[in-house]
User: Which sequence fits this backbone?
């Protein structure tokens, strides 16, 4: 256990833990868009910047992304100084120039008092902030179906050669965890469309409710040893089946003399 | 000695008190949670079975999780989903053969029974003792 000072308060932390984890545990409101516990920290969105200093630094300060900075004994951390608020305002101002119509960015910017970007808006804005969370989650799950392509102004998230991605299984992890809901998908009946590829959804054998995609179920049974017939029913039908089976056992055990 | 749920369907009246207890115990930010326990018809007259996660050994939910979000809690013997790690891919929901890993659309979380940290509320509230939680020799 080590001790750090956050906004003048002494706080205990574990060695090697990232600063953002400590701040979140202390319920300090630090905005972070590209952070997810499932993947390694990346430091793309820059909103979780905090000010650190030490006693022996003679008043020198440093601004670091708290998601990437491991805590160390004796750190003195400030999270809401004037400089930091100004910095976050500038970053959000830049985000607004890139994504002027994104509700998540607009809300966050409004919290910091930025309602209109002071920069020139990009010509054809979209909702992507290029934080790379989708590609990191896709890599972590072992598919690596999408990645960031091109550099500079042309940088975007896309499947290989912008064709239907062959490695995608349609699990929706990228779309559901996107901080700005940029990644669009369509579930119509028993088909799911994402990244320009169409998937067939498995259906529950009893009620006909769609479940996960056929490709995802095949991946799970091949690589994770889940029997294929587990995917024939959805969770509700599985529960009903369990109740019927346990009911049979209960009646049977009552009839059999103890 | 490990504690386990002991389900005695013959005693269950289907009153759904366990469901209420579960929902209110897992309420968060002013929203009740979806129940992790379901008293369902057992296929015979007046027979109900509370279907709840029985914390299997080598469970399908843990095997199916591609981001290792489900961990075994040594103290309680429960497999718990860490909501911060979960990416909501629904692999565990589809994989559990008992249907005890489910999705809560209101809280936007994948949930399963976590034994309430070693003292399950549903077992406390069961009026007929159809559902009990006590140490048994395994």
Assistant:
């Amino acid at each position: 256990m080590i001790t750090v000072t956050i906004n003048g308060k002494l706080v205990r932390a574990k060695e090697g833990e990232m600063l953002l984890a400590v701040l979140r545990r202390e319920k300090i409101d630090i905005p972070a868009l590209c952070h997810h516990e499932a993947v390694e920290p990346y430091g793309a969105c820059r909103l979780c910047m905090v000010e650190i200093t030490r006693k022996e630094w003679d008043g020198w300060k440093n601004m670091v992304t708290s998601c990437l900075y491991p805590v160390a004994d004796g750190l003195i951390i400030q999270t809401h100084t004037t400089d930091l608020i100004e910095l976050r305002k500038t970053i959000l101002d830049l985000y607004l120039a890139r994504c002027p119509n994104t509700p998540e960015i607009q809300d966050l910017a409004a919290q910091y008092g930025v309602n209109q970007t002071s920069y020139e808006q990009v010509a054809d804005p979209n909702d992507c902030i290029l934080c790379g969370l989708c590609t990191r989650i896709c890599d972590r799950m072992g598919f690596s179906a999408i990645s960031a392509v091109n550099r500079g102004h042309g940088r975007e998230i896309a499947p290989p050669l912008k064709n239907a991605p062959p490695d995608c299984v349609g699990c929706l992890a990228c779309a559901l965890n996107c901080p700005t809901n940029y990644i669009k998908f369509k579930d119509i009946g028993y088909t799911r469309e994402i990244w320009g590829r169409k998937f067939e959804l498995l259906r529950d054998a009893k009620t006909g409710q769609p479940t996960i995609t056929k490709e995802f179920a095949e991946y799970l049974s091949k690589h994770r040893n889940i029997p294929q017939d587990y995917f024939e029913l959805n969770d509700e039908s599985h529960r009903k089946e369990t109740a019927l089976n346990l009911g049979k056992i209960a009646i049977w055990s009552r009839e059999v003399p103890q | 000695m490990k504690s386990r749920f002991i389900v005695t369907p013959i005693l269950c009246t289907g009153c759904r008190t366990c469901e209420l207890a579960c929902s209110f115990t897992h309420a968060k930010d002013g929203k009740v949670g979806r129940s992790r326990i379901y008293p369902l018809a057992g296929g015979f007259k007046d027979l109900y079975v509370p279907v709840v996660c029985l914390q299997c050994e080598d469970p399908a939910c843990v095997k199916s999780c591609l981001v290792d979000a489900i961990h075994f809690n040594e103290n309680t013997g429960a497999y718990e989903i860490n909501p911060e790690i979960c990416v909501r891919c629904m692999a565990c929901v589809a994989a559990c053969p008992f249907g005890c890993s489910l999705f809560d659309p209101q809280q936007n979380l994948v949930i399963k029974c976590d034994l309430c940290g070693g003292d399950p509320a549903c077992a406390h509230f069961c009026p007929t003792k159809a559902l009990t939680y006590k140490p048994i020799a395994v």
User: Anything to note?
Assistant: Residues 120 and 133 of chain B are 7 Å apart (CA to CA). Chain B has a mean pLDDT of 91.
